[in-house]
Structure formats: structure tokens, C-alpha cells
Amino acid sequence: MSDVHWHPFLGQWVVIAENRQDRPQLPKEWCPFCPGSGKVPETYEVHVYPNDFPALGPPGGCDVVLYSSDHHALPSDLPVERWSAIVDLWADRCREFESRGGVRYCTVFENQGEAVGVTMPHPHGQIYAFPFLPAYIEIELVNAAKAKGCIGCAVVAREGSAGGPLVIAENEAFTAFAPSFGRFPTEAHIAAKRHRVKLTDLEASERADLASLIRIMRRKYDRLYEAPMPLMMLVQQATHLRIEFLPMQRSETKLKYLASIESGCGTFLNDTRFEETASRLRSIVV
Q: Over the range 232-265, which residues count as b (16 or more CB within 10 Å of their CB) and which as e?
């Protein structure tokens, strides 16, 4: 199992999870997420799978969310109805985790591509229920407490408003835009237009709108360089509900590496201009 240790210089928790050292690394002959493995149903569309190598022990938890039974499906290939089912499942699992005593925060995320460190190629995401506040979430809450109003609503009004130069796509409930403070190349966010904090705050129509924009953005990313974009997708639900897309490719042939300045100093060097990101992604027809 895992245990946590306090980093006295950074004032944050570090998780030691040595059990994860033995997890499969891109297995070729067998996949536990595929029908026939004995670990998942013989037929399914969306399925929650308990992580065989959890990073967090009780009272926290780690889920694997399987997007499809098709081992070779890309998230960008999934129909909007499948993304709706995924968003609904995210909300249901977060509600269940948050009802447990000792869970402080739920992170929904997905890693796509070997450049991000994916160990299982089957289309899936994950949910971590933390027994402590992750460092970035704690910083976000501190900054939110200093603001006069909701910082997320202010960002949406400034950078994600209808027809603005940073807007990539939008619908009634959500807007997708390239934030001026993006840390990663071609970074984009999907944010709620109304004040919503968590997935569990959303009405059914809002969840459907969120699923629609996720699908649009995933298709745009995979068409940007005509190949599946290595990226991280995170659902942030601390102050204002948003999906962050953090790509790890800065051009058709170059990857972004988090080297000394980013990893050691926490200062991100972005190789792209947010106006150009918005323009390029907005122009991709999906």
C-alpha cells in the first residue's frame, strides 16, 4: 500500500506508492481492460474498474474509468453519447467518494500517449479520491479566498466570453478557450459559463453540453498535428468547474519536456502564444 510524507520545503504531501513499480508497461499480448481478460464484463460501453495498483490507500481511492471495450478506440473517436455516459459516471463516482469520511478532494483525469507516461493503451481515464488537498488545489483555494468574487467566473468573463479572440468553441453551458496563463503548449480549458464548482452541481443538460465540448476538443487536438495528441486532461472542481487540456507536444515533431525550471522551480515556460492556439484550434473543423 501507499503512505504519504510531508515535504518540509514545499509544504505539500508526497505519496510513496512502491506497489506501482510492478504495474504492466504497455503489454502487447494481454490487456486486463479487454473482454475475455476475466477482470471486466464480457460486454460493456463504460465501466469502472478498481485500480490494481492504487496510488492511494483508504480512506482515499483510485478508480479506472474504461471508455470503451474496444482496445484500439481513441477518445476522439467516441460518439457524444459515450462521452455523456462518461461524464455521468464521473459525477456519480465523485458523489460516492465525497460521501466517504476522510476524502478531501476528487480528481478526474486522463493521460493520453506514451510521451505522458501511459502504461496501458486501452482508452481509459482515472479518478483519485485524495485524503488530503493536493498542493495545486490548496493554492487555488487560497487565491480564491483572496479574491472579491469567483476567480473562475472572472476568467470566463475575461477570456471565455462569446465571440472573444481566445474562444475555441462554445455551447449554452460551457466555453472552450485558450487561457492567457496557459503553462503548456496549445493548452485549452473548458469552463462552466454559470457558477458551478463540481460535476455534481451540473444539471443533466449541462452534463450533456460538457460531453459535447469534450468530444469537440479531443477531435480538434488529434487533428492539430494529424496524430493522437499526447496530453493530460483534468477535471478541476475546487473553485470553478473546468476541464484543463495540457498537451505535451509543441510542434508537429517536438515534444514539451518539464525540465529543471518547470520541475524544480515551478515556473512553466510555454512555447506557444495563446492567441495562436485559439486561432489554430478554432479553425479545425470536426
A: bbbbbbbbbbbbbbbbbbbeeeeebeeeeeeeee
pLDDT digits (tens, 9 = 90+) for 208-218: 999 999 999 99
- Residue count of the chain, please give it: 286
Query: In this model, does residue 24 exceed pLDDT 90?
Result: no
Say whether the peptide bond before residue 35 is cis (omega within 30 degrees of 0). no
**C-alpha grid cell for residue 1?**
500500500
C-alpha cell at 43: 460486454
Each residue's pLDDT tens digit, 136-153: 999 999 999 999 999 999
Calpha distance 67→173 (Å, rounded): 23
Separation of first and last alpha carbons in the chain: 44
AA identity, residue 66: L
Please list the residues that pair with 232 across neighbouring strands.
111, 246
- Please count the helices (runs of H) and the strands (runs of E) in the chain: 6, 11
| pLDDT greater than 80 at residue 1 | no
Could you give the CA distance from residue 83 to residue 44 in angstroms, rounded to a whole number?
14
Q: Where are the beta strands (DSSP E) in the chain?
A: 3-7, 12-16, 47-50, 61-66, 105-112, 124-130, 167-170, 174-177, 188-192, 231-236, 242-247
At the topology level of CATH, where does 3-283 sit?
HIT family, subunit A (3.30.428)
Task: Using alpha carbons, select from 243, 241, 16, 236 the residue that is nearest to residue 105.
Answer: 236
pTM of the full structure: 0.96
